[in-house]
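queue> pop job 88
queue> type: inverse folding (structure -> sequence)
queue> payload:
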């Protein structure tokens, strides 16, 4: 792990996988009642996808985006998380309950590992290069459904935990996972 303790950020390839079992709570609800809950937020982005979307035919772009969304969704759900939102070529996942930090990191590791295979396929078939970048942060957030013209009934997670995870995503280079010190400390404590 490489950590910049002055800014509360850790970065790593995170090669070791720790076995845990999920115990979800607030995220298992139907989101009809807004609650404030401790969560681990995982932001996942495809680096290089804007260039891809400008080079390839629209149906190929959407097919590749669907592959990416499926890969990320399966990894998040496999580790007991929930995909909360999709923004452009980014997905936001959330984890709560027992070992939430470990499960979020495991999901990030799986995404990183499995995307390598997907990227090799994209490179071979279309001559394009892409990578994932991820940001993880743990904190309290408000979860619920919000009404509105475009988001009528859509699940939302808002708060500092979400904002910090997004900022960490933007600090991550291609192929990198960046986590806050809070997530890192939760991993150390649980070992």
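queue> result:
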């Amino acid at each position: 792990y490489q950590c910049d303790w002055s800014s509360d950020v850790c970065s790593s390839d995170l090669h070791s996988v720790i076995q845990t079992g999920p115990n979800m709570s607030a995220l298992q609800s139907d989101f009809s009642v807004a609650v404030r809950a401790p969560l681990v937020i995982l932001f996942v982005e495809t680096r290089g996808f804007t260039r891809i979307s400008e080079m390839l035919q629209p149906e190929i772009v959407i097919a590749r985006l669907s592959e990416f969304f499926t890969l990320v969704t399966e990894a998040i759900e496999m580790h007991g998380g929930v995909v909360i939102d999709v923004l452009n070529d980014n997905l936001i996942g959330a984890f709560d309950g027992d070992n939430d930090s470990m499960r979020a990191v495991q999901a990030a590791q799986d995404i990183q590992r499995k995307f390598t295979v997907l990227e090799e396929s994209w490179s071979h078939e279309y001559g394009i290069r892409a990578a994932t970048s991820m940001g993880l942060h743990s904190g309290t957030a408000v979860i619920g459904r919000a009404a509105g013209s475009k988001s009528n009934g859509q699940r939302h997670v808002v708060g500092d935990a979400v904002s910090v995870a997004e900022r960490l995503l933007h600090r991550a280079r291609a192929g990198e996972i960046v986590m806050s010190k809070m997530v890192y400390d939760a991993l150390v404590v649980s070992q």
